[in-house]
Write the structure tokens for this entry.
Amino acid sequence: MSPFAGEGRAEVTDPGGLISVDRWRELILGDLPALDAIELRIQDALGLVLAEPVESDEAVPSFANSAMDGYAVRVDDVAGAGVDDPVELRIAGEVRAGASELTAVGPGSAVAIMTGAPLPPGAEAVVPVESTSAGASGRIRIHRAARKGDHVRGVGEDVSPGQQLLPAGHRIRPADVGLLAAIGRSRVHVRPAPRVVILSTGDELVPLEQRPEPGRIRDANGPMLGALVRQAGGLPYSAGIVRDDRKAMMYAFDSNLGHADLLIATGGVSAGAYDHVQEVIGKLGKVRAEKVAVKPGMPQVYGRIGTTPVFGLPGNPVSSFVSFELFVRPAIRALQGRADVARPQVTARLTRAVSAPAHKRTFVRVRLKREAGRWTAEPGSSQGSHVLTSLVRADGLADIPEEVTSLAVGDEVTVHLLVDT
């Protein structure tokens, strides 16, 4: 058994030994590998990021067509038309959407046309059906003049050949799928959703389906982290529970690397005699452990085994949750090629005074409310790192800087929204 001892200080944590939240995140993001692009059907690419720009080989529309149900006409023939002084034209034919045989519009004639139908030869504009009335047999009255191009969708009006439509780095949305389909692009190259393996470590853990014996607890972190991974755009894979044993942990890490773009271990990262995560990662690859100036979640481990990034997060559920939000979620987003790695933020006024430890950036669970056009933030009554209900009741995390140890009612704070975007 390894020695289990502290450093004999009056202070539990030496401020000089802390690394800032921003610096730790910067080190992690700077170390991430790039995932190879994959080709997917556009229907399967929703939410993923383009690895290369998309240009069109075609014009959209590819033919001039009507934007309205009405009559295709020559401009000169309807130049004098008015509401009370209509022009009467001969109906030469009809064009439906999808038609291939078109009746030409000659002098003194009009062709009935449906929305989306090709503009017939000789036609210069479309008069909406609402601006017409029935004339003598086989004729139509036009009650408004028209300018060239009225209610006509021109060739290339939406997209022209060679036009760049979507840049590399763009995240595909439903409208983009429609546009890609319109230009005949059925497949695109995108950054894949990272495969994220989750290990829960600890002799005290049992699967959630099992009733724990005295001294044991259900594994809440594994399912919670899996949900967070999915929300961040990754594909979670549970590797189950691993005992506090070096060999068992070594095998669990090594056997799961083949299908992981990123690996998360929760628990076993502090100063306990059975906290082996840092040592095991170090034996398999490279590792760095730091005390981050944050509450909750001070002990953090990050490393690489081969090309796979590996995170060691604290075992307390709130500490694990906050650590994921600050460090793992940005990494998963970055692996996807996304620029929006951070949660959206709002400024809110506190409804209750809060205190925070010196030298640590503190994230307080708060419930948000909109009052008189402003946000208010109510801190939860319990901020313990083991209290999962405090997360369930929270809309966001109020960010209190390291140099601030207390805030009064009405003071403003930045709140990181716990919403899916």
Q: What stands out?
A: Helices lie at 21-31, 174-182, 221-231, 246-256, 277-284, 317-335, 388-392.
